[in-house]
Design goal:
Elements: H1 3-12, H2 16-36, H3 49-56, E1 63-65, E2 86-93, E3 96-103, H4 114-130, E4 134-137, H5 148-178, H6 182-201, H7 207-231, H8 235-282, H9 290-299, E5 307-313, E6 332-334, E7 341-345, H10 347-350, H11 357-361, E8 367-369, E9 373-374, H12 378-394, E10 402-404, H13 409-414, H14 418-428, H15 437-452, H16 457-464, H17 468-482, H18 489-510
Parallel strand pairs: 3-4, 8-10
Antiparallel strand pairs: 1-2, 2-3, 5-7, 5-8, 5-9, 6-7
Length: 512
């Protein structure tokens, strides 16, 4: 090959290093787009984790950390989303630096896994090192139970760092008391109020935070004691400092307790909100993944049962709080939907439907209890309960009281497809069109009673409260209309279904 040919070929060949760089940049862009994409659908009007951070921080001030960290429990890449359900980073609020994290409820229900915890711990370490506050935007379901010990261990790490921050804050408060800085003292007391509130919202005891206050006061007093001894301070001065130390601990403890009490009220509201989301998830037509249900149930403090039933209630014209059903804490209730509904766990073993107690708990509302089904089929129980409630409203089923679908399965089956039922009635009862309307009603009533009595004339007469001879007379008329078809098992079944549905429809027309 000549030198000119080799040079020309080298010019035509694409530079491999440049191609690899372009490929890596494209791969990085694809990964970044995948990392910032939502992990799943959100409720209408609900903001995502990054949207909430953008609303909190100054424009264009957010720097994200741990963007490409992935969940570690699952072997399948499709189940190892980037970020692991939390967005972390730092930015500014009114020009002041803050660290911030936001849970993403579309990824594993916002629960904390190993990678999630490590990102949050690293953020808190950064905040402790730089002295800036941490803002947490919570929308999750607690620890991720699938990752077990690792998830709980990282919870302990977060608590340890919170305690460290609490001790530092208590020391600062004591020093500010000595320097007589009331504005700063009020600000730190407000900080402890928020800390107590946050502890309650996480469903934890106040003991750990109170321990941090006591440890901070103890360290401060030891430091002051050594300093007083070195300076040779008089005992009245040392006594005054001791009184100040006790007052500091008391003020901080009171602020934390007040915040904890307020947080407990908010925590109950948050649990109720999560239970509402869980109920919506369970009653969707498309079942949610078992992992999503487990995560959300954990955050809602609702143990997952094996079987459930759904109760559909008649809607009241004006909904009031005093009309809310008196059901147990294990029930998931939604009184805003139409119809209002209640999901009850373990219906067969609770005995909650016995006697009048359940009717009284519903405060006199007509209601239909769906069949007991596995948890994953809760939407089916709601479907049948709502259908039974509709038939109650039409008078086909009893209008008042509490009705169990399990006691009326044949009626529900008959009316599950109204158009098909009309076709069956039209075909099976055509021979009765040959007689007058009044005679037709008597013959239809007699035929149904005779079929349900196993062709026993005496039993049919007892059902109808007439003389057996009357039944025999009507049967001879029916034999002329139907012929040998009355002896065909298939025809007899069609007749029972058609006549039963017609009797229910007549009952509907007679009910006011």
């Amino acid at each position: 090959m000549t030198q000119e040919a080799a040079t020309s070929r080298a010019r035509q060949a694409p530079p491999r290093a440049f191609d690899r760089t372009v490929e890596r940049i494209a791969d990085l862009d694809a990964r970044r787009a995948l990392a910032v994409a939502p992990g799943g659908p959100r409720r209408r009007g609900e903001f995502g984790a990054r949207e909430r951070i953008d609303r909190l921080l100054d424009p264009n001030s957010f720097t994200e950390t741990g963007l490409f960290v992935r969940a570690r429990a699952a072997a399948d890449d499709a189940r190892r989303p980037y970020g692991d359900g939390v967005v972390t980073g730092h930015g500014t609020v009114d020009g002041r630096p803050v660290c911030v994290f936001a849970q993403d409820s579309t990824v594993f229900g916002g629960s904390m896994g190993e990678a999630f915890g490590e990102k949050t711990v690293a953020l808190m370490d950064l905040a402790l090192k730089t002295g800036c506050p941490v803002v947490g935007l919570n929308d999750g379901g607690g620890a991720r139970i699938q990752e077990g010990v690792a998830s709980l261990a990282l919870y302990a790490e977060l608590v340890r760092r919170n305690l460290r921050a609490g001790v530092v804050t208590a020391l600062t408060l004591f020093v500010d008391h000595i320097t007589d800085s009331p504005g700063r003292v009020d600000a730190i007391a407000a900080t402890y109020y928020e800390l107590g509130r946050a502890v309650a919202l996480e469903g934890r005891s106040l003991d750990a935070l109170q321990s941090a206050v006591r440890i901070g006061g103890l360290h401060a007093w030891r430091l002051v004691g050594r300093t007083a001894e070195e300076l040779g301070l008089d005992s009245p001065v040392v006594a005054a400092l001791g009184e100040l130390a006790f007052r500091t601990v008391h003020e901080v403890a009171e602020a934390a307790a007040a915040g904890y009490a307020e947080g407990q009220l908010r925590s109950a509201d948050e649990v109720e909100r999560r239970r509402g989301r869980l109920l919506d998830l369970l009653l969707r037509d498309q079942p949610a993944s078992p992992q999503t249900v487990r995560e959300l149930a954990h955050g809602a403090r609702w143990p997952l049962p094996q079987y459930v039933t759904v109760v559909a209630l008649a809607a009241a014209p004006d909904q009031r709080d005093e009309d809310r059903p008196l059901v147990g804490s294990d029930a998931l209730v939604d009184m805003e939907s139409r119809p209002p509904r209640i999901l009850l766990p373990d219906p067969d073993g609770s005995g909650r439907f016995g006697g009048r107690a359940f009717a009284l708990a519903l405060r006199g509302r007509p209601a239909a209890i769906g069949p007991a089904v596995p948890l994953t089929e809760a939407a089916q129980s709601l479907c049948w309960a709502a259908r039974a409630l509709g038939l109650m409203g039409r008078g086909i089923l009893p209008r008042q009281g509490v009705l169990r679908c399990a006691d009326h399965l044949s009626t529900l089956l008959l009316h599950s497809d109204e158009s098909l039922l009309a076709q069956l009635q039209s075909r099976a009862l055509t021979p009765l069109d040959a007689v007058s309307e009044g005679q037709r009603a008597r013959l239809a009533e007699t035929l149904l009673a005779w079929l349900l009595s196993g062709s026993n004339v005496a039993d049919a007469a007892a059902r109808l409260h007439v003389h057996p001879q009357t039944v025999r007379y009507r049967l001879r008329q029916l034999e002329k209309l139907f012929g040998d078809a009355l002896q065909d098992p298939g025809t007899r079944l069609d007749l029972i279904l058609a006549l039963r549905s017609e009797a229910l429809r007549n009952q509907e027309n007679l009910t006011p």
